[in-house]
Design brief:
With 407 residues, this protein is of the alpha/beta class. The protein is 27% helix and 22% strand.
Length: 407
């Protein structure tokens, strides 16, 4: 990264949106610093395989160099077909599209709520694990990432902004601060004066990974495994299985489990439950599942298991707040979404490409950049939140409003 007299762009958090923004700044030779509360990239489980939309892929391609994008593309899975196949988790049988339940409604709802087509490029469903994506976005940014730095707020000056840390210290002065530290973002709360809220839907889930050999009972495709036997509500797992590698136990595929409120109950509802305890919870919930499916859990990489709370921003859309030219927010910090439809990560990536492009055009911080970004982001992000919440109401049986509990 070329040096110049400009102060750095400060970025809080080292998640997907933050790191892709960093790559945009790196490519434009704009100085930046990233502050992450974790101690390393591998500090905790990295989560499941993300499906990339056309918009998400286009955003990534616009940020990375052609060579870097080819490296990224080579890491992505490309699964044939554009549909979602539902499986009865107890019998192991595929559920026909037209199946009906005893009430005459569409059976299992596993085929409901998802987008009509999952294909995103070349007629393929394209996906990549969150961990691999972070590593690829991190490339070249390592010298500018500061670990174990928990940002709790900011302080404006007449010439810039400081990031404030949990230990009472503060960063060097930056030209601009971008909050990308997720649903618990203190930057978002301070900037919006409490208008940005993330609601707890009550639904819960677990992310996991297993050797690709464990997925041979399913084979290539996008699958939804559904279990309606729990009296508290529906439990399901979604996985995207790419071709190749199913005979190589060193290759891992991911899955994500979700459930209606009351089904997945972690001790103390602990969001930080990872590793063996989260794996044990997943195994207990699937102990009666069909032998075709049980290897996904019995053979899982326990260190990668992670419990999670399913959250959502205000369903009515991203609220407006008084613009602060030197501070803005991206990703889950501004628009948390349910996993329904796989929209959240793709929207966060669009934020990075948009803000990074504006900063590149301005050759760094410039008055008006954050206002332009926020105005455009609010349009597509509000539609995304509404869509994600709408699908989640059917899939997870959740309902939230302005009076619901926040995280």
């Amino acid at each position: 990264m070329a040096t110049n007299a400009r102060k750095p762009i400060l970025i809080s958090g080292a998640g997907l949106s933050s790191l892709l923004l960093a790559r945009s700044l790196l490519r434009a030779s704009i100085p930046f610093l990233v502050f992450e509360r974790d101690s390393s990239l591998s500090f905790r489980a990295q989560g499941y395989r993300l499906r990339l939309s056309s918009e998400g892929l286009d955003a990534i391609e616009s940020v990375l160099t052609p060579e870097a994008f080819q490296t990224f593309w080579a890491k992505c899975s490309k699964t044939g077909g554009s549909g979602l196949v539902a499986v009865n988790a107890l019998t192991g049988s595929n559920i026909p599209e037209a199946a009906k339940d005893s009430d005459g409604k569409k059976g299992d709802e596993a085929a409901k709520g998802g987008p009509p087509s999952l294909a995103s490029r070349d007629g393929k469903v394209v996906g990549i694990s969150r961990g691999n994506m972070r590593k690829l976005f991190m490339a070249g940014c390592e010298p500018f990432v500061h670990w174990s730095r928990h940002v709790t707020g900011y302080e404006l000056t007449s010439t810039g902004v400081f990031a404030l840390f949990a230990d009472g210290s503060k960063s060097v002065e930056g030209d601009m601060l971008v909050g990308g530290e997720g649903i618990y973002s203190q930057i978002a709360k301070q900037l919006s004066q409490g208008k940005l809220k993330t609601y707890d839907t009550g639904a819960r889930g677990i992310h996991g990974q297993a050797p690709s050999t464990a997925f041979k009972g399913l084979g290539e495709g996008v699958w939804r495994l559904a279990d309606d036997s729990n009296p508290n509500g529906r439990l399901f797992v979604i996985t995207n299985i790419r071709p190749g590698g199913m005979d190589d136990p060193t290759v891992q595929f991911g899955w994500t489990m979700g459930a209606q409120p009351g089904v997945v109950q972690a001790p103390n509802d602990n969001f930080s439950l990872v590793g063996a305890p989260a794996a044990a919870l997943a195994k207990s919930l699937t102990k009666d599942w069909h032998p075709r499916l049980k290897p996904l859990f019995e053979e899982m990489n326990e260190s990668e298991a992670a419990f999670w709370k399913i959250t959502c921003s205000t369903p009515s859309g991203v609220p407006e707040w008084k613009n602060e030219p030197r501070v803005t927010v991206i990703g889950d910090a501004v628009h948390s979404m349910t996993p329904a439809g796989g929209i959240g990560a793709n929207t966060a990536i669009r934020d990075s490409a948009l803000l990074g492009g504006l900063l590149t055009k301005a050759k760094g911080y410039q008055d008006g950049v954050s206002a332009t970004y926020e105005a455009e982001m609010r349009v597509y992000a509000s539609e995304a939140v509404k869509s994600s919440y709408g699908m989640a109401k059917g899939q997870f049986g959740v309902s939230i409003d302005e009076n619901s509990a926040t995280v």
